[in-house]
Amino acid sequence: MLAFIAAAGLLPPNPPMESIERPTRTSEALALDSSGRYALRSPSGSLDVQIELPQGSSAGRPSWSLKRGTKTLLDGCLLSLTEKARGDLMEGARVDSVATRFVDERVPILFGKSSEGVNRFREIRLGLRTPDGGGLALVFRCFDDAVAFRYEVESLPGSKGVVVQGEDSSFVPAGEWTAYARYMANFANSREHLIAEVPLSDLRQGVLLDTPLTLQRQDGITLAITEAGLREFPGMSLMRPIGDTRQSLFARLSPRSDGSKAVCSVPFKTPWRVVLIGNRPGDLLESTTLFCLNDPPAIGDASWIRPGKMTWYWWNGYVGYPKPNEPILSFEAQKRYIDFAAANGILYHSIISSENDEPWYINGQPGLFPGPGADSTKVRPDLDLKRIADYARSKGVRLWTWVHQATLRGKDLDAVFAHYRNLGWGGMMVDFFDNDDQATVRFAEEILKAAARHQILIHFHGMYKPTGWERTYPNLMNHEGSLNLEYLKWRDTCTPEHTLRVMFTRQIAGPMDYHLGGFRSVVREDFVPRNVGPNVLGTRGFNLALYVLIDNPNPMVSDYPDAYEGQAGLDFLREVPTFWEETRVLAGKVGEIALMARRKGASWWVGCASAGEARTVRFSASFLGRSNFRMRLWRDADGADLDPNLLTVETREVRRGEEIEVRLARDGGFVAEFRPAK
Length: 678
Prior knowledge:
Elements: E1 19-23, H1 26-29, E2 37-41, E3 47-52, E4 63-68, E5 71-78, E6 81-83, E7 87-88, E8 94-108, E9 116-129, E10 135-143, E11 146-155, E12 161-167, E13 170-171, E14 178-181, E15 183-184, E16 196-199, E17 208-209, E18 213-216, E19 222-228, E20 236-239, E21 249-253, E22 262-265, E23 268-269, E24 272-278, H2 281-286, H3 289-292, E25 310-311, H4 313-316, H5 331-343, E26 348-351, E27 361-362, E28 375-379, H6 385-394, E29 398-404, H7 413-423, E30 425-431, H8 438-453, E31 457-460, H9 469-472, E32 476-479, H10 496-502, H11 540-549, E33 556-557, H12 561-564, H13 570-575, E34 582-589, E35 593-600, E36 603-610, E37 615-620, E38 629-636, E39 647-654, E40 659-664, E41 669-676
Parallel strand pairs: 25-33, 26-29, 29-30, 30-31, 31-32
Antiparallel strand pairs: 1-8, 2-3, 3-4, 4-5, 6-7, 6-12, 8-9, 9-10, 10-11, 11-23, 11-24, 12-22, 13-21, 14-16, 14-18, 15-17, 17-20, 18-19, 19-24, 20-21, 27-28, 34-35, 35-36, 36-41, 37-40, 38-39, 38-41
């Protein structure tokens, strides 16, 4: 098993990994019948994939289906990759070779929902020959909680490079499903959408859908369609075509400016197309399969990477201290935040921009968007960054910052990030990508590489969903890619129901930044959006619970210091970990409730958030170890239905398996720590 860790909370540079890999006997993994169908079974036997290839002189395309026990989940899903000069590469392709293998290994996860990922699957690799002699491969992996496939283009006669014109891989769910859909008007957007709950049969046709797309059947079985290992290729959205009568969902790739999708050198591999499968929505949040489908770390020594909480004064409207109207970029205002961070276990303080949204660097025009002459390596003259950095270092606080991605385009990223490091930045949010075309995906990866070489952590905002890059580049802390609590500055769209939909849709893809930490809860009837000192919906207990429920090793504590000091719940913010060794989803219903237990060392942390009317939550402490535990419970106080900031803290001993009951106010929540009793 993995051996983790060190007194300072740092991981060894190369944690050990258990691994079993061997070729499989045909009877273990697949069978070929007279119709040309290959059957691939998951390690536990719970999932069965059937792959069908055209026979004889047929020019048809391959397809696949999925069963769970006797129930068909997906049926007649087409496989298709189109090249500009040759058309559909799958059409008329014939099997040239077959190889299978079985892998059972534990993959280290440095900073996430667990200390290790379960990488256990059976694989079939079908070598294909195209009618003109090209060499392809179709690779399927069947896990106990997922099916993944990808295309590999090995050789094409007379071509060292190809233009990918499209991909018509389809996913065809069988039966009746509820879809949790994020509709998109076009490919170029920030992926910050409301989520529509709709019968799959009523899903809008001819409209782009963001991934992951979560589907749930009446019996609770839940699917999520997404991708993993997105590198050197455009991102995948989905679309139900106009006139569709089969509930078909087709892959749609973000286009280049000329309408093609990708220019690739041969050989190349597409990202994995993934269907996650669970008995209930919470199973998909426990899964580590997307992480495991990515390449091992490209960073040798990761001991410098230190996730932790961070201030983010942009969210609170640039509230500065200690004097009235003190400029937020002044030394005194920055010192106030640094002192607060140092006193409350917040590892990073962020320096972002001035009150009028002008960045910390020379920007060329007012506002956050860069103008002529913008240069994010040049510090604006009214910011004494060296003095602030020296003071932060003296207090044990690291500095984080923000840049617009356009200021990095076309630059020598290695030189830029070397300069950032010299300025004192330990981490950086790169914002406003607003696309997942091939160029943007490549650019984002180059940023991660350069940042890693100079020991800088990265957040991506205005960004598409994660696909498991945090395995290859553990300096990547999170993506945004959701309509989140920042929207409460402008409108009431980030409701508790919305957050509990995001949790079981976008969060399935990986770590998510959500602008946590608002400490001014109001009931829905009293909500008024405001840019300075924004209010939040949901009780104090609800908003604290998001630190446990949302995967993010670098969460924000985004309100201003006076909003926290002397307030109930600050002690929780000070102590709650930001990454975990084990995760268990105890209960979950999309848009209604989430209840999760996370382990860090010998202690367990439980978070629960609920939307709608007051309710009582009961759960078993069966996840605890054999010893007695002392529970600290932060819950909605009596009266929180009217004043949602009211919080009660209780402490008592709890035994393993004991039934625990907690009353939640309207839009309520709670958090609890279970520490072994001395």
